[in-house]
Specification:
By secondary structure, this protein is an alpha/beta fold. It has two domains: 151 residues, FAD/NAD(P)-binding domain; 115 residues, FAD/NAD(P)-binding domain, CATH 3.50.50. It is built from ten helices and 22 strands. The strands form seven sheets. It has a five-stranded parallel beta sheet. It has a four-stranded parallel beta sheet with strand order 13-12-11-17. α6 links the parallel β11 and β12. The longest helix has 19 residues. The two termini are 27 Å apart. One of its GO terms (molecular function) is flavin adenine dinucleotide binding.
């Protein structure tokens, strides 16, 4: 009897797992990749793509069809749509298609890799929807960056640091760039905080500490046409462009609530040491939908490798193996196009030139090719 592996999500985690399984050419097995975006999106470079003229659309986006078409046609299917309901008992997933009709996909093995979205849906740091919607978000943000003379970046985590760094590198001498930090140190106070703040200062980025945003609203009076940022203490700041980078929300709304972590909104899917969803035998998860130990590229890569191996083992009737994470916890932030900051295991500081060479120079854009030709897996 033929078996079906359904993979929900066509980004870094999902496409990696698809390649790993399809390259094995497992007998009588079909892989169905479901993605709301018809293109693979290298969102890691979105922080630089908002600077006009730096990165082309083709560098950021490649068709998923191209990635899968190297395998025998009978071994895979690409479904463009979004998961709207999962029934782990019945082993089916309901997919909402672009025309708003639905399709039920039965599965023998299911991989949850639908990632996470930004809490601010109009930003391009994560794909906000379809290929067309994501492309429009990038282009619109780049146009607003060009026209703005005063830009506020909210959130001083890794994305906020990189966005502010790119803006400061390009416009630090001609535009006012302000980074809002809710605490007294950027990067959550980690060991790279002081280095990141110093690098941003060199790029003429102003960091406003203790800045808790209560709301934003259209400006009035002298601030007509601007955005007013309202802080919890009542202070307001008018800006031409407000770019929030805070908050990731796992895309888990289609998953029954008993399989999700606590919380009201940002509820990641629960997994065991095998990256299997507890109380199931054939449902696995990897990437930002898990957010364990945190969301991150290297973590996602390792999780995808483990999930692919465990799905292959399950198809053969073998037991799963414990998932392995990266050998070291690495966090690296590009700060502009020539510098960067990073740390290893929160104790070892990475030299700026090392971060630049490994990440800041290209934001890993050459890796897009590996996800399209399958060599990543």
């Amino acid at each position: 009897m033929s078996k079906t592996v359904v993979i929900l999500g066509g980004s870094i985690a999902g496409l990696h797992v698809a390649h790993a399984l399809l390259k094995k050419q497992i007998k009588d097995t079909k892989v169905i990749l479901v993605s709301k975006n018809s293109h693979f999106y290298w969102n890691l470079a979105s922080v630089r793509a908002i600077i006009p003229g730096q990165i082309t659309d083709e560098q950021l986006f490649q068709p998923l069809q191209t990635a899968l078409s190297r395998y025998p046609a009978e071994s895979w299917e690409l479904v463009i749509g979004s998961a709207s309901k999962a029934d782990f008992g019945a082993k089916t997933v309901e997919i909402t298609l672009p025309d708003n009709t639905t399709r039920a996909l039965p599965y023998h093995q299911l991989v949850l890799a639908t990632g996470a979205r930004s809490s601010s849906p109009d930003t391009p740091w994560k794909s906000p929807g379809t290929y067309e919607e994501t492309l429009a978000s990038l282009h619109d943000t780049a146009a607003r960056v060009t026209n703005a003379q005063h830009i506020v970046v909210a959130g001083a985590g890794s994305t906020g640091i990189e966005v502010a760094g790119e803006l400061g590198y390009e416009y630090g001498k001609t535009k006012e760039i302000i980074l809002l930090c809710s605490g007294d140190k950027v990067a959550g106070g980690s060991s790279l905080a002081d280095a990141a703040a110093n690098e941003l200062k060199k790029l003429n980025v102003t960091i406003k500490y203790g800045a808790h945003v209560q709301e934003t609203r259209p400006g009035t009076g002298d601030a007509q046409g601007k955005t007013e940022v309202v802080f919890t203490g009542g202070e307001t700041l008018a800006t031409d462009l407000y770019l929030p980078t805070t908050g990731l929300i796992p895309n888990t709304e289609y998953i029954p609530s008993q399989f999700l972590g606590p919380g009201e909104v940002a509820r990641p899917v629960l997994v065991d040491e095998f990256l299997r969803v507890p109380e199931t035998e054939e449902v696995w998860a990897c990437g930002d939908i898990v957010s364990k130990p945190r969301a991150g590229f290297f973590i996602t890569q390792k999780q995808a490798i483990s999930v692919a191996k465990n799905v292959e083992a399950a198809l053969a009737g073998l037991k799963p193996t414990v998932a392995k994470g990266p050998p070291m916890d690495i966090l690296a932030c590009a700060v502009g196009r020539e510098r960067g900051v990073g740390r290893i295991n929160n104790t070892i500081k990475m030299p700026s030139f090392m971060v630049w060479a490994a990440k800041g120079r290209t934001l890993a854009l050459p890796m897009v090719k590996t996800y399209i030709d399958g060599s990543v897996a």
